[in-house]
Fold this sequence. Notes:
The protein has about 500 residues and is mostly helical. It has helices spanning about 25-45, 60-65, 65-75, 75-85, 90-105, 110-130, 130-145, 145-160, 170-185, 190-200, 215-225, 230-240, 255-265, 270-280, 295-305, 310-320, 340-350, 355-370, 380-395, 395-410, 425-440, 440-455, 465-480, 485-495, and strands at about 330, 335, 415, 420-425. It has a two-stranded antiparallel ribbon. A two-stranded antiparallel ribbon has the order 3-4. The radius of gyration is 32 Å and the shape is elongated.
Amino acid sequence: MRKTILTSIFLLLFSQNSFSTHHENSEEDKNLSEEFRSSKKRCRQNDDTQPPKNKHATWELQSKFFDIIDSLYAMTNKERKKYALQQNEESERLLICLHTRLKSPLPMDKETHQHLLFMRAFLSYYLDIKTEKAVSYYQEAAQSGDLKSLFNLVKLYTEDCFSLLDNGSPDYKSAGFFCKKEAVQGDINAQFILGVLHENGQYGLLIDGSPDYNSAGNYYKKAADQGCADSQFNLAVLYKQGFYKPLKDNTPDYQSAGNWFKKAAGQGYTESQFNLGLLLKSGKYGLLEDGSIDQKSAGDWFKKAAIQGVIRAQASLGISYELGLYEPIEDDNGNTYPNYDIAGYWYEKAAEQRHANAQFNLGLLLKSGKYGLLEDGSIDQKSAGDWFKKAAIQGVIRAQANLGISYELGLYEPIEDENGNTHPNYDAAGEWYEKAAEQGHANAQLNLGLFLKSGKYGLLEDGSIDYKSAGDWFKKAANQESIKAQANLGLLFESGLYEPS
């Protein structure tokens, strides 16, 4: 899935009447700044302008308060989080100092005020674990014009930490207007958010009411040119979908898409690594000199993403190994063969994380005997059936059809009678055939018809065979060019056992 920011957060950030942006310090701000420098000095002199000492907010901390705030504000979110969690007691005292200073009537300049508001919100989120309180603090800081607070709020909403939609529709117009001012000044985060707003149709709609993908791409490109991996990825997707600057014949510009995927992938952006692998494997980008697909590079990018935990990349890498497209095994004679062991390894990684197609492919690989043989060298039909069932439950039609076969042949979960003899579970087989057949799987329709015709499943109330239903399923499969179904349908007609309704 694409990584995008849910910009609904702006509802509680902006309104037409409460709105602020960064600006050059006015003369008044300069005067306040001079007064604030004096207030810093007074704060460090332990005079009666200071609030009472308590066990949390010590004067030792007060004396280095502003230095700590300046240092923390300059850090990345990751560095600040590490500080807050590792220096827990000092962070708690610092948060109390922030509350105290922000309530103080002592003057401060605009920039310092923003820094204090931001740090109060940040520490409140990581120390108090009260999202609502942190959000309210971030709102106050963002309304003062602090962009770091704005982007952390967006992050909170993106991670589904807090819903901000209870009070009505977001004010995307004001949000876009605010970000546009910052984007013009080169702020890559604002450029990225503007790209998302345009792409989602939340700001700057065209006359016909459709999203302005061209503007979205333009803003992504501004940020992408400055190295923003998120923007590079989103820009690549717009190119790939043909929404941004398509070629003259109105087809997507896969070359530009691949180039931008590659830039983001080079920065370690895992989704971009995976998508670059897909684009290379499709042959729409990066063909070799002889015009063939660069399976080696595709596999390399799949592997980079797979190692970092991208489930779809793990599944795709398994396919590349199984088909011998990537890192095949070479024997002494120079012949190459697929590396089924590595294929199974990556299928298993993805399957364990509930990737349905990987579960199905793992079942097939186990059933083929190319992977995971038992100690006696026999095929592990139990594990194959288990993976078929997991995929079948998730709706993979081919897995449902194969699970039906495993049940019918008694390879999976056979029924044991009183004498210890085992028999195939025909009822389970028929149920799974039916699920796949109802979704148009031709072989499942054929097998279900044969199963009904044999009398092993779906007998009528009087105990007779349901030739009518058998014929109906043969007919459905026959219409999909199943030769066996056509032959069996002909036999039913010939014997007078079937008359279509």
